[in-house]
Structure formats: C-alpha cells, structure tokens
Amino acid sequence: MDVGIAFDLRSDFTLDAGAPIDRLEEYDSEKTVQAIARALAENGHEPRLMGGGRRFLEAALARPPELVFNIAEGWGTRSREAHVPAVCEMLGIPFTHSDPLALALTLDKPLTKRVAASFGVPVAPFAVVETLDDLRGAALASLSYPLFVKPAAEGSSMGVRKSSRVLDRRALESEVERCLHDYKQPALVETFLPGIEFTVGVVGNSRPGTSSLEVIGVMEIEPLKVRPEEFVYGLETKRDYEVEVEYHVPPKSVTAQKRREVEQVALAAFRALGCRDVARFDMRLDERGVPTFMEVNPLPGLSPVSGDIVIISRARGWSYEKLIGTIVSEAASRQGLACASAPDRRALARGPV
User: Fold this and answer.
1) Which of 34, 86, 134, 240 has the fewest other C-beta atoms within 10 Å?
2) Does pTM top 0.85 for this prediction?
3) Structural domain containing residue 88
4) Domain limit, last residue, from 169, 191, 213
5) Are residues 213 and 281 in the same domain?
6) In this structure, are residues 212 and 204 in contact, taking their beta carbons and an 8 Å threshold?
7) 206 & 286 share domain
C-alpha cells in the first residue's frame, strides 16, 4: 500500500519565551519517523512522509494515500491529537490508531477517568482545579494526602515532576499554581497511588461479533533511587531512565494472577474509551493492591530505542518491523483494506510452488 506517515517533529515548533522545559516533550524525532518508514517498507508498503498540520492537509488534498500511519500529536488545544484523524475522516482516507473522538477524549485526563469509571474501570479519587480558590472546595476536602498534581490535558508526562507528589497544603498550592501558570489549563489533583507502576501494551480491535484484542505485555517500572510508595515516573526520571529505573517484562514483583488482573484492567479501559489498533495504558496498584487505571496513550511513542511499547514488544520477541506491521494490519483489517505482510508479498511475487 501507499502509506503516508502523519507526524509532528520537535523541530517543527519554536518555544515561546518562558515556556516550560517539556513543552515539546511529546513530539517525535526524525530518527523515529525514519525508523517507521523503514519498517513499513520492510512490510512491503511504500511509505511517504506527509508531516502534520497544514502540511499534512495540503499533501492529503494533493495526493491522498491508501492509508495514513498516524503519529501526529497536533498543536495548540486539548483536541490537538484529533486534528489529523478528523481530516482523514472528512476526506475519506483510512488511517491507523484511534478515531478523533477517542483521541480528543483521552488527552483530557478528567474526562477519561469519568468515562473509564462509568464502565467499572478502577480509578483514583480526583478533583479538577481551575483556580487556586478551587482548593477550598468540597471535592478537594474529600481527598487525603499524599496527593498527585498534573496538568489536565497533556501527554508524555508533561508537567509531571518529582514534586508532583505532595504531602501537605503548602506543597499542593505550589504545584497547582505551577500547573495553572505553566500549562494554561486546569490541574488534575488525585489521590496518589502508592503501589507498583506498570505500563501495558495492547494491540487489536474489538467489534461486534469479533475481537482481535491482545495484550503484548506488561512492563513493571522499578525505581532505583526511592521506595515505590514515593516514586514519581515524571520528566526527570524519564530523561535519565538508565540510572533512575529498571524495566521488567514480564513484571518481577507480582504474581501471574496479579499480572492478569493488570491486563484485564487495560483491556477494559481499551474498550471503554473506544481505542483502536494500538494503545498503551499506565496504571499502579492502590493501597489495597488493586490495579488502578491512571491514563492511556492511544498514540504511544514508537522510538525504536526508548519507546515503552517498543520495549514491551521486543521482550515479547517481536521485531520493530513486526510491531509496525501489526498496527498496519489491524488498521487495514478494521477498514476492509487488502494488506499482505512482507513475507506474503514475496510469496505472491514468486507465484505457486
């Protein structure tokens, strides 16, 4: 297939004066985009780079591809991740990953939690704070320390620091003020989950009468410098992950039964939020050991070196090419497109034996 890659690079944007240091954290590098292009080619497709924003729109109008491989994060609003898939839907171009509704929903963390909870997915108690005056509201009064504070509508741990875990009123006010000022949006304040942290990779689709959903694997994130009940998997840790944490696939600190419970929460959240093709779910154990959903990334990072879902799939024995090929195959099958894998295409070219 002719597969257009929709993406946004960090180099596409310029930081405003005074912007937080992680303002461009969720955008991709050229190395990641090139790795995806090579993997698509290995799977027998013809990749071309389309970029994001207006550049993508112009390219799609000039020569629409048979399929868009979408990793574009968008820019500017809480619905930014829905920009490219909305254009694809409007123009009738098939695309990978979730639809505009799911992508807009899941970037808004409070809305995501409300929807997930309505389907019975465990979530931590939380409140949304739009001004410092909101800290005197009844919703905050029902939450007990330690608490956790982060921007309500950002991805890639933007706004999450080691200081995001707060133990008292003074620290809470400071963190809320930082989020409101730096990210120009409400802050999410939730009960801090003290148990082991996991991230779960899921591929496939669930449709009436059929399901190809599969957990690729569960990764435990073990802190090396603090106790688990104090651990924050935020910006400082992720930028220095080689000395701050160890990754374990499968998890080393829980039973097989507990791992299955984690997997079931991820699958339930995938269905509840309307995800498609691939997604990565972050969760922790609460004080009772219950796997509790924190957030989802329906456009998980695909860095061939440090992408969490890439690490998980590699531990499963999947090559990078297999992961990318599986995402494309799931998207193609869901939309009724013919999509032979690279080995299948080579067999077709040879003809019958």
Assistant:
1) 240
2) yes
3) 2-101
4) 191
5) yes
6) yes
7) yes
